[in-house]
Design a protein that fits this description.
It contains one helix and four strands; from the N terminus they run αββββ. The protein has 72 residues and is α+β, with helices and mostly antiparallel strands. The protein has a two-stranded antiparallel sheet with strand order 1-2. A two-stranded antiparallel sheet has the order 3-4. Helices cover 32% and strands 14% of the residues.
């Protein structure tokens, strides 16, 4: 049992280190999103081969709150 736990811990540490390394070496690429005549934003990235980060921003407005909060 202890060996399995130690193996799981070691594997998770290696995985975390690889994720951190990939994140630290990632390039930041900003792309313009074209808007069609109907006012709808469209983006066709083709085939995604690398990690893609998508930021979704909304509004968190509920009864009982003083105003709205950003929700991402």
């Amino acid at each position: 049992m202890r060996r399995a736990l130690a193996l799981l811990l070691a594997a998770s540490m290696i995985w975390t280190a690889q994720l951190w390394r990939d994140h630290a070496n990632a390039d930041i690429v900003l792309s313009k999103v074209d808007v069609d005549p109907d006012g709808v934003a469209g983006y066709n990235p083709g085939t995604w081969k690398d990690t893609t980060f998508v930021l979704a921003i909304g509004s968190d407005e509920r009864p009982g709150l003083d105003g709205a909060r950003g929700d991402a």
